[in-house]
Amino acid sequence: MVGEAYAGLVIRDPGRGAGHVCLAFDNRADLEARAREFLAAGAATGELTRYIAAEEPTVPLPWLPLGDRYPEGVVIDPHAQVAVYAAATEDAVATGYTGLRVVADVTSLVRTPEQRDAFARYEYLIDRYIPDHPYTAICAYDRADLGDAAIAELACMHSRADARVPFQLHACPPAEGSAALTGELDLHAYDLLTTTLDRADLPPADEVVLQASGLRFADHGALLRIERYADDRGITVVLRDANGGVKRLADMLGLSRLRVEAAR
Amino acid sequence: MRSGAAAGHEGYFHTSLCYSSDEELLAVAVPFLTEGREAGEPSLVTLDERSAGLVRSAMPAGSGVEYLAGGAVYSRPTAAIRSYRRLLAEHAATGAPQIRIVGGVPSGPAWARYEAAINHAYNDFPLWSICVYDQRTTPSDMLTEVARTHPRTARPDGTHEPSPTYLDPIGYLSEPWKADPDPLESTRPFAHLAAPTPAAARSAVRAAAVGILGEDALEDLVVAVSESVTNALVHGQPPVGLRVWSGAGRVVVAVSDAGPGPKDPFAGLLPATDRSVGGRGLWIVHQSCDNVTAETSPDGFTLRLTSGAL
After folding, report:
1. Architecture, CATH, for domain A179-262
2. Which residue in A22, B57, B138, B209 has its CB near the most CB atoms, within 10 A?
3. Top-level CATH class of A16-165?
4. Minimum distance, in Å, between the CA of residue B276 and any CA atom of chain A
5. How far apart are CA A14 and CA B123, in angstroms?
């Protein structure tokens, strides 16, 4: 049965240019209203739609109970989770749908640091998978339950985040780099940056390229965090297509493991 | 073995020359450079175009003297120290017994502080420099600071005498900054933020500077302001405040906190490489905008950053 395994989410939505959206919600009515609108748009184009949540919705939605598959406190297996979604999407297409569109409230899967460690890695993996597959998804997180800091750990792994997050590390076309780093990096992002890089499972290589054309700002402390990440792994990180301010700052610092290439 | 007057001296031999005619400049510079080349020492000139031209035409062809573009080297004091230290390290690495430089810097309080700081910053190298000041064009208050920041004064006959008003760099840099407020500060600020985050400070500066500064200058000022606010949050004491003014082709930003300011007299002029990671904020600030001044008062510490038409 398609959809039973949907704990996270994935979305491909070329019309909006963002297939993997993170949503932090403040109350269930807002979430359900957003889900109705989002899923109705998918159904209109022939997509299979699913609303996955622990609680039964108060309005008509194609609900799958999250708890059927995921016991309270479970730590997901990131790679297995991606495989499940891939199979579900293939099933949907084989059944005659144009794709799969999901809204999932995964709050109960990310309450502890250990859960977030696994789930953030999954979010990173699925973000890379989405652009080439007929997925679209909103991953929803309850702000009152989790708090902004915990949500930020997950939101920053999405191509699009409707949540308070200083930066995002997300998928980009392989020709542009291993991932894209967008947003602004200052002292309020240092720890999140280190955590996110650790969780991201960037492909092993002597030189890891991050597409930085969307990186509006980085201060020197943030560049030193990236340098430390690279140094710990004996690799070089490249920030490609960075703005001139980031480039000049890096030149000043004389970093050995982080190379910043300015946009031409 | 170092040649000339600096023979036997360890580290930086820092001298000034205040001249009142082209002939006086050449009477010191030409023998200084010639002796340097005869001793096989790298001998460099970093002067404005006119003065460099005078020296070049007075030197014999093929003398081996290097002429560096003074303007580029001397854009900002902290950047000049960084460039020179790299240049000096390269020469020292080749085994040069001494490096000779005839140089000239702009006038103003920031450059007076530079002249004080380099007594320490270049003391790792066997450098002999003559910093030349044209008495016809240099303001008299700058000439006073030249005497206070150079341990020795060169005479046209090639001799040196100690400067009686010289003050060691720590003493000099611990004095209150000699800087007046920018006239824009008496106007209503474009933005006035209490307890800003670095992100809020960046937004305010972007809004104030767009259309006034070019893209590079704007991005660099945003770096300087973000680092200043971060520094105040991490090392200063609350409350932190930010005021931004724009007008007359420039942007002025004041970042204040209630603390006493940095203890290190070289803060902003030299990188704090021997300290904890992240101790380089002020050093970056000084390289990322056109002018920086600092002020301590009973209310706390204020850093004033300016970019654009000074």
Report:
1. 2-Layer Sandwich (3.30)
2. A22
3. alpha beta
4. 11
5. 61
